Amino acid sequence: MKLLLSGRALTAGAVAVATLVTGGSAAGAATAPAHPVADGTAAAAPDIPIANVKAHLSQLQSIATANGGNRAHGRAGYQASLNYVKAKLDAAGFTTRVQQFTASGRTGYNLIADWPGGDANQVVMTGSHLDSVTSGPGINDNGSGSSAVLETALAVARADYRPTKHLRFAWWGAEELGLVGSRYYVNSLGSAERAKISGYLNFDMIGSPNPGYFVYDDDPTIEKTFKDYYAGLGIPTEIETEGDGRSDHAPFKNAGVPVGGLFSGADYRKTSAQAAKWGGTVGQPFDRCYHSSCDTTANIDATALDRNSDAIAYAVWELSQ
User: Fold this and answer.
1) Are 198 and 291 in contact (CB under 8 A)?
2) 4-41 in b/e burial notation, b at 16+ Cβ within 10 A?
3) pLDDT tens per residue, range 146-157
4) What dihedral do alpha carbons 257, 263, 267, 270 form, nearest 10°?
5) Within a 13 Å sphere around the CA of 178, how many CA atoms are in the beta-carbon half?
6) CA atoms within 13 A on the CB side of 46
7) Which residues are paired to 97 by β-bridges?
8) Which end of the chain has a smaller Cβ tally under 10 Å, C or N?
9) Are strands 30-36 and 95-103 parallel, antiparallel or unpaired?
10) Degrees to nearest 5, angle at CA 205 with 240 and 28
């Protein structure tokens, strides 16, 4: 998630390329309500394996460690992170596209992945930013969202899921410089293409070590989907306010696309009322390592990461019918 800063000089421009490799594997376990799919069988949102999500985080940590301690825009760590995610998606049968832009004098990249099938005029899009700040590896911000979205996409492939709507996943570059990658993507779409996106789901910091459970209150249908999921777990939620306008849902919202998402908190401090609902430490930030060198794999609450990962899958399945 980007800092609340203004006046940065940011530019964007240039080219897109595409590749396609096919593949697939076995389905995962079902924990969410079943829905019919095209062949008449029942599909259910899978339980996202937390071990798999944590394995992706470990890979991102290793990438940062090998590349100056970060995965920031225009740096080798970001390129290696993108290559890691892309290779997983290509092997699983997604059509991937790398979109190139320029920000702060450095080349940046978005990664877009489409799952074959579904109504191309009704696109459910799920995304997260893949870059870190230069001061740390960015494992909660935003390896957590990026890894959970990746594992949800891989779960789609394992299930050979065939929803009514078309599924698209994205990993954004240069979010930390002012939402540059996601804004470039939205601006690159014509009005007709933007109108085909029935919803954009954003996940930026979902494993905070002193976590809260916050739901975006933008689109009512998307908001209700996440609230219903957490109500089913008996976990109260709050409306997300800390990240308003500070993450990659903002360019979509400004373009009229319905948006929603989840957040576990950044540098705001947990109140006594919040600690009573969720546990954790009163008076401490939700993430004490926000934008710092200590945002490592040790800076993750596994329970929050697990719950939010499952909630992502639930929403993708629920909203794509």
Assistant:
1) no
2) eeeeeeeebeeeeeeeeeeeeeeebeeebeeeebeeee
3) 999 999 999 999
4) 130
5) 11
6) 19
7) 18, 112
8) C
9) unpaired
10) 105
Q: Give the contacts of 74 (CB within 8 A, at least 6 positions apart).
A: 103, 104, 105, 106, 107, 108, 174
Q: What is the pLDDT of residues 161-187, one digit of tens each?
A: 999 999 999 999 999 999 999 999 999
The length of the chain, given as a count of residues? 321
DSSP string, 112-151: EEE-S-SEEEEEEEEEEE--B-TTS--IIIIIIHHHHHHH
d(CA 116, CA 180): 27
Q: Which amino acid is at 68?
A: G
Task: Assign 214 to helix, strand or coil.
Answer: strand
CA distances from 292 to 35, 133, 299 (A): 42, 8, 11
Q: Is the pTM of this model over 0.70?
A: yes
Q: Which residue has the tokens 């009163």?
A: 282
Cβ burial of 295 (10 Å; 0-12, 13-18, 19+) is buried
* Beta-bridge partner residues of 101: 108
Is 151 known to be catalytic? no
Residue type, 36: P
Please give the Cα distance from 210 to 282 (Å, whole number). Answer: 9
CB 86 within 8 A of CB 99: no
Cα separation, 176 vs 179, in Å, equals 7
Q: Which of 151, 175, 223, 318 is catalytic?
A: 175
